[in-house]
Specification:
- The structure is a homodimer.
- By secondary structure, chain A is α+β, with helices and mostly antiparallel strands.
- The first copy, chain A, has three domains: 75 residues, Arc Repressor Mutant, subunit A (Orthogonal Bundle); 151 residues, GAF domain (Beta-Lactamase); 97 residues, Enolase-like, domain 1, CATH 3.30.390.60.
- In chain A, 49% of the residues lie in helices and 17% in strands.
- Chain A has 13 helices and ten strands.
- In chain A, the strands form three sheets. Chain A has a five-stranded antiparallel beta sheet with strand order 7-3-10-9-8, with helices on both faces. In chain A, strands 4-5-6 form a three-stranded antiparallel beta sheet.
- In chain A, helix 5 runs antiparallel to helix 6 and helix 5 runs parallel beside helix 13.
- Chain A is elongated, with a radius of gyration of 26 Å.
- The two termini of chain A are 50 Å apart.
- The mean pLDDT of chain A is 87.
- Chain A binds a DNA duplex through helix 2 and helix 3.
Chain lengths: 338, 338
DNA sequence: CCTGGCACTCCGCTGGGCTGAGTGCCAAGC
DNA sequence: GCTTGGCACTCAGCCCAGCGGAGTGCCAGG
């Protein structure tokens, strides 16, 4: 176990490094933080911290830099989430409140997060796996061609054209529409399949095929809609911390374009509380020198989706975590209001 | 007027510079292109071209680099659009054909363009200003609360909740739905307003308020839907040509996040044919060292939206123009099929 | 266990010298 | 009058050596 002071030294190193982006030496440390000990003592502590793998030297005779492990300890033990100031909170709230629809909410959230953290923001659309059916509509486009429209309680609308095996009368259509709605409105997506399984049986033989087709199309839509979409923003912020190289930012940009990667990344986060994944803790290769700070958000108690930011491992964790948490909270509120 | 050979020299310079990314000198030119004249002659020609502002020297005793004006001349007079190879075409077609819905078409198009041109691709969603109404649906959510669903011929679905001034009966609802559809299905958005203006008059006094409310909501949706959305991709390609600096790519990333800027950029393009805007021809400040190659596409004869790529002024114009044009053509086909 | 001292390391900056590609100009030739 | 070879000149980029400074590790004394 590291002594209290050594932890203090580690904290100081992380803070200074995050601020200056330069390896920090023993002398500078004692000056900028009143550690009450001499540089020499700090040097001993640093040697110990390095021994344990919390910090490293870019080269001999340079200062120390935190390792992923060091940041991990910092985040877990040494840092408190920094709450936002009241004006900031108010600004967030009013900015989000003026959103007109779901797309707008997500769009604004992304911009907000990117601006607050000055990093790349990622916001997942509210997931539909826990959302419920608000309404299903069936429209005849042609005698044997229907349009299926699904409306969810999160405000999304999905439509799909269904080609029927046989012509389908207007009365049958109205019948199916009514029965379908009476059975599944208000139900969760995952609960729908058993509720409609026997529906074809109650129709005439000639319509049965069409009903089955419509149902399987509906179920497909439900499954597909559970697939998650997301929005990213603030990529220009990447250039801030890539004084190093285009080499650094290229893989990150690539990873960001792979929605699958991002979804997986967010998916790995805990459902509640802020999750921080540091450097190599991220499975994806292009993101091994970045950290991901994410959190679930939702309109009620349950998290229906995640949001977060991607930035250099050398980031202001307390501030970022605070911003992410606050934004998630307010987005949740906004969603709940609709 | 520049002599034939001088134009040839300019073409050679552009081609070489695009290939090597390095200022090109007189000797190299005579070697790589059989100009049938000596370096000294080429030097004279270059001096003339520089005099006219078509090329420039980064510094004395360096080779020449084309200016925006030089590229302009190249694009207008010296270059032919390079058609894609048959296998390429086939690949495009089959890749786009497997798209399942509009989002997917646009998404695939973006990826395709980015990959083909190795640059940043921008695709505007098919504009609705020229699209037509396929169906309007009205659903009662509560006695005085309706949901309005608009389905367009481009496959987009938009919905909106309408709060009514008074309860609205199921029969009135069915009535309104039927009349609305019979009047505006198949009509263009822009033609809708006059067609529905007198609709409230034919309803009972008690329902008139609600009908008006629904109509204004519908018209609003039509207008809003005319606003254009777009998708971008391939931002990682920016790093390829920014060996120079993060300084170069930052403003570009910023501009790319401003949808307004991009829409304006695409909007400036001609409706038919490939448009190329080079360097300072782009109004936006962050894009003065990039070129935008864009083209309209559409399901029929009319262009309903634009797509294009953003890249360094030093780009392979013939190839890029060919790719952009080909992709637009195939996307149009795909859209027409639906 | 802390501290001051000391020798050592090594990155990063600076300046000089060289090289080579490329130019502009000129006088001669076709 | 255009083209050509010759020639002197310019200048970015590279290599190298020297150095200054920040930082370290170690040690002996408090």
């Amino acid at each position: 176990m590291l002594s209290e002071r050594r932890l203090e030294v580690l904290r100081a190193i992380v803070q200074d490094y995050v601020g200056t982006e330069e390896p920090v030496g023993s002398k500078a440390l004692t000056e900028r933080h009143n550690l009450q000990v001499s540089p020499a003592t700090v040097r001993n502590d640093m040697a110990a911290l390095e021994e344990e793998g919390y910090i490293a030297q870019p080269h001999t005779s340079a200062g120390r830099v935190p390792t992923d492990k060091g940041y991990r300890l910092f985040v877990d033990k040494l840092a408190d989430v920094k709450p936002l100031s009241t004006p900031e909170r108010r600004a967030i709230q009013s900015f989000l409140e003026s959103a007109v629809d779901l797309d707008d909410v997500v769009g604004r959230t992304v911009r907000l997060l990117a601006q607050l953290t000055r990093q790349v923001a990622v916001v997942q659309y509210p997931s539909l796996s826990r959302s419920t059916v608000r309404h299903v509509e069936l429209l005849a486009l042609a005698p044997a061609r229907l349009m299926l429209v699904l409306i969810t309680d999160t405000g999304r609308v999905e439509q799909r054209v269904v080609d029927c095996p046989a012509p389908f009368g207007e009365t049958s259509l109205a019948d199916l529409r009514a029965r379908l709605n009476s059975r599944i409105v208000g139900e969760r997506f995952t609960d729908v399949p058993p509720l409609v399984a026997d529906l074809p049986d109650s129709f005439d033989a000639e319509d049965r095929g069409t009903v089955s087709t419509v149902l399987s199309s509906l179920l497909e839509t439900l499954v597909e809609e559970t697939e998650e979409r997301l929005m990213i923003g603030g990529t220009a912020n990447l250039t801030r911390f890539a004084t190093d190289f285009p080499l650094t930012i290229r893989p990150v940009l690539e990873a960001l374009e792979e929605q699958v990667v991002l979804l997986k990344l967010l998916g790995e986060a805990k459902d509640s509380g802020v999750t921080v994944r540091i450097g190599h803790e991220n499975a994806h290769e292009g993101l091994t020198s970045t950290s991901v700070v994410s959190v679930g958000y939702g309109s009620g108690d349950e998290a229906v989706a995640k949001l977060g930011v991607v930035g250099p491992t050398r980031m202001d964790y307390p501030g970022t975590m605070g911003a992410v948490r606050a934004v998630a909270r307010y987005v949740g509120q906004i969603l709940a209001e609709n």
